[in-house]
């Protein structure tokens, strides 16, 4: 696995060519990208181009790959610490409760 520093399929092509030259043979390559703000047509075009030098190419439908790594319990702990700090400083406790899992599930399914 080699990070390519953002949405940069051309860097994969160049890196693969350099590795093949160095090793004296062909290697398999896969590319996984997030969509960022690209249109469906743009993503299709990029996937078609990437298919010329990658054995597997995947452009996720969501904007940021990092969002796949969100851990609801960690978000809940961070929010609880923030609320506790606010209560300690102001004496005011917010109304209601917060749970990241349902919010993230709802957002991801839209």
Q: How would you portray this structure in words?
A:
The protein has 110 residues and is mainly alpha-helical. The chain has 2 domains: 9-67, no CATH class; 70-108, no CATH class. 49% of the residues lie in helices and 7% in strands. The chain is built from 4 helices and 2 strands; from the N terminus they run αβαβαα. It has helices at 9-23, 40-50, 72-90, 100-108; strands at 30-33, 56-59. It has a two-stranded parallel ribbon with strand order 1-2. Helix 2 (40-50) links the parallel strand 1 and strand 2 (56-59). The longest helix has 19 residues, at 72-90. It is elongated, with a radius of gyration of 21 Å. The two termini are 30 Å apart.
**Main beta sheet:** 2 strands, parallel
Number of helices: 4
- Estimate the helix proportion, in percent: 40-55%
Distance between the termini: 30 Å
**Unreliable stretches:** none
Q: Determine the mean pLDDT.
A: 86
User: What is the N-to-C succession of helices and strands?
Assistant: HEHEHH
Number of domains: 2
Radius of gyration: 21 Å
Identify the strand order in the major beta sheet.
1-2
Instruction: Kindly name the structural category.
Output: mainly alpha
Query: How many strands in all?
Result: 2
Note the beta-strand portion: 5-15%
Q: What spatial form do the alpha-carbon principal axes imply? A: elongated
């Amino acid at each position: 696995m080699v990070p390519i520093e953002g949405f940069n399929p051309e860097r994969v092509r160049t890196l693969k060519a350099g590795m093949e030259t160095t090793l004296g043979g062909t290697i398999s390559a896969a590319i996984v990208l997030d969509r960022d703000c690209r249109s469906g047509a743009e993503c299709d075009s990029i996937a078609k181009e990437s298919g010329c030098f990658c054995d597997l190419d995947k452009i996720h439908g969501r904007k940021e790959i990092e969002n796949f790594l969100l851990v609801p319990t960690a978000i809940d702990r961070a929010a609880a610490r923030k609320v506790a700090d606010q209560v300690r400083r102001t004496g005011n406790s917010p109304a209601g409760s917060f749970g990241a899992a349902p919010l993230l599930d709802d957002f991801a399914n839209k």
